[in-house]
Amino acid sequence: MGLAAATPVTLMFHPLPLYIGLRYVRTRKQGFFVSFISWVSVLGIAIGVAALITVLSVMNGFEGELRGRLLSLASHATLSGPPGRLRHWPTLVARAREQPGVVGAAPFVDMQAMIGRGQTLNGAILRGVDPALEPAVSSVGEAMVQGTLADLVPGERRMLLGAGLAWSLDARIGDELTVLVPRIGDAADVKPRIQNYTVVGIFEVGLQEHDNGLAIVHLADAAALAGTEGAPTGIRLKFADIFAAPAMAPEVAEALGGGFEISDWSRENASYFRAVRIEKTMMSLILMLIVAVAAFNIVAALVMVVNEKRNDIAILRTVGLAPRGVVGIFLTQGVLIGWFGTLAGIALGLTLAFNVDTIVPGLESAFGVRVMDPSVYYITEIPSEIRWEQVAIVAAIAFVLTTLATIYPALRGAHTEPAEALRYE
Predict the structure, then answer these.
(1) Which element (helix H / strand E) includes 17?
(2) Closest to 179 measured CA to CA, from 127, 234, 108, 233
(3) Are 77 and 262 in contact (CB under 8 A)?
(4) What's the CA gap between 62 and 74, in Å, rounded?
(5) How many Å apart are CA 152 and CA 129, to the nearest integer?
């Protein structure tokens, strides 16, 4: 009676399939090869998950760095229109800055130009800005290597050059450059306007698009050269939340009376960020193959466990254990291996992602190499940005793959015939 009374208590606290599955995981009697395959599976899952988390975090960091450099001299959104629409731009700028979510607004004039010195002639974007308002929408002041925005004085034809453009023109502070801007005449013929400007500053953002192809002058000088009668061609906006710019820019345009052509950073730089997204997707798929291979190892390990435990399964079936109970035993074992590997991979991946700035310099010092050579790359340190939703997705996918890998061995164990397994015992 005492033994009969004790058994239900044991089953109450330990559902039989779960209890036996845990015993199989903890047992030391299974073959060395089976144990080896199980540990290889755990290691493969951990390495795959860790690599995926680390690579995604590094690519997020590069994406953020790229976005920051692209927007250092660009704006979150722009409102453009004909000169007559922006004749009273100070009022429009003031009203734009009053809109919810807007932290900065400034006028601008952009035009295609040819800039020459001596026999050298380069194409560039000539941008006219207001030195007093420009810091509210861009970081050009922080990017200045020589000179300041305050050096731009209306009417004196002064210019700030990107470092790459200055190098290609062999231009230095104090040099005089020739600026040619094409204009369409009344008879639809091209009548270029030519003016001379003096270099008073050089800036370097660390992005080829800006450093090699942008020149900045005073708003008044640019408007006069473009023939817009002193009016800018648009208003640049900066929002408190950069990701809200595509949705909020049309609202600001409506608040200013409408009739503007609207653009934002996600449209202007779509090709850059599309390339990054495609690269992240492909890297994720490739690295997820590591987890998939480890999941196949789980299949192999559990199939061998099923073959080893045929007699045990036959005895359990004989005493009344249902086939779904046998499935639960091997699901428990496989899921435990998958969870352990996934959690170990998350811990390792987060450790690497949080300490990339320490690990990479240590490896560079140990092996005497530079991962990001400053003579080649603008970005000299590997950035990292952990996004918890990505960590959760990686963990979920790894767990699903490892769970699916246990289904076939579990079903194979459930189909074991007791009489067949015990025939020669």
Answers:
(1) helix 16-26
(2) 127
(3) yes
(4) 18
(5) 9
Residues with Cβ within 8 Å of residue 273, at least 6 apart in sequence: 63, 66, 67, 266
Cβ–Cβ < 8 Å for 126, 181: yes
**326-356: pLDDT as tens digits:** 677 777 777 887 888 889 999 999 999 998 8
Give how many domains the chain has, as a whole number.
Answer: 2
What are the residues whose beta carbons fall under 8 Å from the beta carbon of 194, sequence distance 6 or more? 178, 179, 180, 181
Beta bridge partners of 215: 126, 161
Q: Are residues 283 and 400 in the same domain?
A: yes
Domain identity same for 37 and 101: no
Give the helix/strand (H/E) hosting 132.
Answer: none
How confident is the model at residue 276, as a pLDDT? 77
Q: What are phi and psi of 172, to 5 degrees?
A: -130, 170
Q: Lowest mean pLDDT of 3-7, 184-188, 385-389, name the range.
A: 3-7
The rounded distance, in Å, linking the Cα atoms of 191 and 87 is 24
Q: Are 337 and 41 in contact (CB under 8 A)?
A: yes
**In the chain, what percentage of residues exceed pLDDT 90?**
23
Domain extent, residue 302, equals 2-66+273-421
d(CA 157, CA 178) in angstroms, rounded, equals 11
Residue whose token pair is 């039989």: 16
- Length of the chain in residues, anyone? 425
What's the pLDDT at 296?
Answer: 77
Give me the chain's average pLDDT, please.
80
| Integer Cα distance of 266 and 78 in angstroms | 12
- Rounded Cα gap, residues 398 and 302, in angstroms: 18
C-alpha–C-alpha distance, residues 27 and 312, integer Å: 14
d(CA 298, CA 310): 18
Q: What pLDDT, on a 0 to 100 scale, did the predictor assign at position 95?
A: 93
- Please name which of 206, 212, 199, 92 lies closest in space to residue 152, comparing C-alpha atoms: 199
- State whether 215 and 320 are in the same domain: no
Residues 302, 333: contact at Cβ < 8 Å?
Answer: yes
Q: What value does the CA radius of gyration of the chain take, rounded to a whole number of Å?
A: 33
Token look-up 């200013």 returns 256
CB atoms within 10 A of CB 17: 21
Question: 281 and 350: one domain?
Answer: yes
* Residue 186 sits in the same domain as residue 317: no
72/274 Cα distance (integer angstroms) = 19
CA distance 44 to 201: 55
Model confidence over 353-375: pLDDT tens digits? 998 888 887 777 787 777 666 65
Residue 71 lies in a domain: no
